[in-house]
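Quick one, T. Sequence first:
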Amino acid sequence: MFLLLCTYLFSLPWRHSPTRPPPRGYTFNTDYIIHTCGPVYAKEREQECEEHLTNAYRNSLLKAQDLGVRCVAFAAISTGVYAYPFRDATKVSLTVLKEAKPPLEEVWIVLFTEGDFKTATSLAEELNLTPYVAPTEETQVCIVT
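Structure tokens:
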């Protein structure tokens, strides 16, 4: 169902994308859940996909700032069934996070494989971000500050 919703939202012109207040965190230990949809990756639309992914992160950060949130967590948007190449998507996300004004206190990037974790921490260092590593049994978390 979520895939269908994101596919539908992606088909809309950018200016018509619906906005609504984010839901409460419910059973998660969080105040809000900010939903976003990244692009379904296609090599022939690479530039458009990069712009869409940039906007997905940027708009989520803007919403977080509007809500007074100081810490956010992101999964690797569009890198699963949407097939965005992980390294490229991670570079986009880290660049947006680095340029965020004002910066948040913490940004968590939740990853599920050791290879993705190593790629993300390497890219963070290349972008002069300081990765703080907080691995758990089920996920690898790279926190950039």
